[in-house]
């Protein structure tokens, strides 16, 4: 590579550099420079094995690959900003930025280009043509074909999804490309690949002649479904993903069909994470601390549905909690021996492979009012709810009651759903 070969864009292939030129490539967080541009950086331009970021020889690494398809846009943006600042401080060096992150990293060119907006005006930074075209034209070309292709050719197609929604029970794995969310809510490869990058992309999605119609049709099918519970139709965590999807498109197209889904199935509550990412606020929830519904799934998972939180407990602690949840009238600790068999039955639903000696001993201890085991379990229940429930509502969800009197969970049972 020499000055004569440089015409304004990073060349597609670089095999040699002048002494002041630097090869900028995308790295994984371990600094294992094996294939692609990172392999070239190690073999030809001095990249150091195990160094994930920064200048090394005639190369500069920017970590973009976090493994298992995980993307962390905030961290990538911070690393790119750090690189740009480094380039400004080293004006005698000239930096050729490759299409970092657009291979194994899972980014599309138009997405990665957005991180390099500032670099466009830095004289000693050269960007790939795809990045420059995206940034200079002022209009991002969104790859919506990824949705059309998936809906038409994946194992679970759009037609399958529509049929399942009309039948009132989702079964296949199609949620990412049928009800897309704003990018960044999930960490899986599919959630990132099918994530919507902005309001602008969501608007283009709605205006797409195929995707927009399909989204409205399946949303209408969801509204027409006889099942009154979105959780029962979609299951967890997809019930939350659809809430995120509806929030996203409601922000793009207010007073549309998406608002109707939020009103019917989510009590008008928008996905707060989606609102924050798009710079909006849920006015319906503003300054209001709302009590969340509590859902107990078939496998005894405890979900605060409106807070998008799972409440995790050890099996014996969860069994005690579910026992009291099943008895709104409450249970006095002195009568716990009468509930020993019921507690054992609940425990076996949580741990279906039988009761071992340790479990039997734990059940006997917790139902023995002469021991402190039940008080210790109540303290653990309080501890797991404390981080996820507002302090003003905490007493609604935990086992409460004066010493020597009946103890109970006072949460209104119309807020409790047993799947």
Could you explain how this protein is built, in words?
It is a single chain. The chain has 419 residues and is α/β, with parallel strands linked by helices. The protein contains 19 helices and 11 strands. The protein has helices at residues 36-44, 73-89, 109-115, 129-137, 145-153, 158-167, 175-178, 189-193, 199-207, 211-224, 230-234, 238-252, 257-265, 272-277, 315-325, 340-350, 357-366, 373-385, 394-397, and strands spanning 21-28, 54-56, 59-65, 94-97, 125-126, 294-296, 302-304, 309-311, 331-332, 406-407, 416-418. It has a 5-stranded mixed β-sheet with strand order 2-3-1-4-5, sandwiched between helices. A 4-stranded mixed β-sheet has the order 8-7-6-11, with no helix packed on it. Strands 9-10 form a two-stranded antiparallel ribbon. Helix 10 packs parallel to helix 13 and helix 12 runs antiparallel to helix 13 (257-265). The longest helix is centred in the N-terminal third of the chain and has 17 residues, at 73-89. It is globular. 34% of the residues are buried.
Short structural summary:
The protein is α/β, with parallel strands linked by helices and 419 residues long. Helix content is 42%, strand content 10%.
Mean pLDDT, nearest integer?
87
Uncertain ranges = 1-7, 281-288
Give, in order, the helices and strands: EHEEHEHEHHHHHHHHHHHEEEHEHHHHEE
Q: Strand arrangement, largest sheet?
A: 2-3-1-4-5
**What is the tally of helical segments?**
19
Q: Strand percentage, roughly?
A: 5-15%
What is the first-to-last residue Cα distance? 64 Å
Outline type: globular
* Class per helix and strand makeup: alpha/beta
Largest sheet: 5 strands, mixed
Amount of helix: 40-55%
How many E strands?
11
Gyration radius over CA: 27 Å
